[in-house]
Specification:
By secondary structure, the chain is mainly β. It contains four helices and 17 strands. It folds into two domains: 143 residues, Immunoglobulin-like, CATH 2.60.40; 130 residues, Immunoglobulins (Immunoglobulin-like, Sandwich), CATH 2.60.40.10. Strands 1, 2, 5, 8, 9 and 10 form a six-stranded mixed beta sheet that branches. It has a four-stranded antiparallel beta sheet with strand order 4-3-6-7, with no helix packed on it.
Length: 281
């Protein structure tokens, strides 16, 4: 009988933002009948903690399935014929963070969770659907180890703070003591949401860059001090924050995953076709 596990992996970001975990390797291990004996061997006492190479090699004999998530985080894995039902353990192996600008030569494998499938029989075999979202605390630490920084948020009307503004280019800058660094840009979607990905080198530049950058271990890098601008489709600025905001509390030394709400006045919002949402019938 075929046993097939399928589902979706994602990770929590700031506020209501999340991201699919695409192009990640999945490994499924058989806990067997002697579950208690294999809990330690399969590192289930170290869930969501990076594993050492020797620990990964020790578990290979219990591997009954592996595969890769697609760009949307979806996966489908047919288990090995030796599997006859029972509890499973699933690991993820990450070698790239979604939206990551640099491509470090590293890979991190960790235990996601133990699961006891309830199989649903179909003509072609037995299926189990398992979706999972990695928690923010763990995922943000993993992003730190990959030097993956991200700003997300919404652009809305200042008067009607629920009004989303679509198709606006948001630009992020680091208020630096020598020269302000451009971190990146993104267009807002139909909900007014935007996301800007960058890495440490984007704001560690010096006047000698790219020959010399300020190199600091990822976990102790002070974050940038950010301020924002926004442009309409014609390239005109509809938002120009003062660079001094980047030195104020809430904007200086921001974390790897940073959330912000940006607002523009009603007149400029109306120029983007937002009249009805601003109160017109």
């Amino acid at each position: 009988m075929k046993y097939i596990v399928e589902g979706h992996f994602s990770a929590a970001l700031c506020r209501d933002f999340s991201e699919p975990i695409g192009k990640a390797e999945l490994k499924i291990y058989d806990l067997g009948e002697s579950v208690d004996e294999r809990l330690h061997l399969l590192n289930l006492d170290r869930c969501q903690e990076p594993l050492e190479k020797k620990a990964i090699l020790r578990k290979e004999e219990f591997l009954v399935g592996n595969g890769t998530t697609d760009t949307q985080g979806k996966y489908r894995i047919e288990l090995h014929y030796t599997y006859q039902g029972g509890a499973l353990a699933i690991d993820l192996c990450i070698s790239n963070i979604p939206g990551q600008k640099n491509t470090p030569q590293k890979s991190v494998q960790f235990v996601v969770q133990k699961m006891t499938p309830i199989w649903r029989k179909k003509e072609e075999g037995s299926y189990y659907i398992w979706n999972y979202r990695l928690p923010f605390d763990f995922w943000s630490q993993l992003r730190i180890s990959f030097d993956a920084w991200m700003i997300c948020g919404y652009l809305k009307s200042k008067d009607d703070r629920k009004l989303p503004l679509k198709g606006v280019k948001v630009l992020a800058f680091d208020a630096d003591w020598i020269k302000d660094d451009f971190l990146g840009e993104a267009l807002t979607d139909e909900t007014g949401a935007f996301r800007i990905d960058y890495n440490g080198k984007d704001f560690k530049r010096t006047f000698l860059s790219p020959l010399i950058n300020v190199e600091t271990p990822f976990r102790v890098i002070p974050g940038p001090g950010v301020y924002f601008k926004a442009q309409n489709s014609q390239g005109a600025y509809i938002l120009e924050e003062s660079r001094s905001l980047g030195n104020q509390d809430g904007r200086k030394n921001i974390p790897h995953c940073f959330y912000v709400d940006l607002y523009i006045n009603s007149e400029k919002a109306e120029s983007l076709g937002a009249k009805k949402s601003l109160g017109e019938n």
